[in-house]
Design brief:
The protein is mainly α and 102 residues long. It is built from 4 helices and no strands.
Length: 102
């Protein structure tokens, strides 16, 4: 009886490990696919997802020191991940800093 319980726990553990590994691989594949699609879209001239209104809103949030809110807003609007959204908001912030220092 105890051996069956132990074997069952080991089996469930192996199954969970396998599922976690598959999910990790799917995430990597999805990220790579998104990167490729973004490059293709840029190459063929698909307009950017960021409208002037959204960019103005993000710039306003950055100016108020609410970078995290800007990142959340960008993520909600574009559906991109945290890293991509943070990178975009950081680049927007840097462009703003460099244009005001000139």
């Amino acid at each position: 009886m105890d051996e069956l319980v132990i074997l069952g726990i080991i089996g469930v553990g192996l199954l969970l490990t396998s599922i976690i590994s598959a999910i990790s691989q799917l995430r990597s594949d999805l990220a790579r696919t998104n990167t490729t699609l973004n490059k293709i879209a840029k190459h063929i001239g698909v307009p950017d997802e960021v409208t002037a209104d959204l960019q103005d809103e993000l710039l306003s949030l950055i100016a108020e020191g609410k970078k995290i809110k800007a990142i959340k807003r960008y993520r909600m609007e574009t559906g991109l991940g945290l890293k991509e959204s943070k990178d975009y908001v950081d680049s927007l912030s840097e462009r703003t800093k460099s244009s005001t220092s000139n």
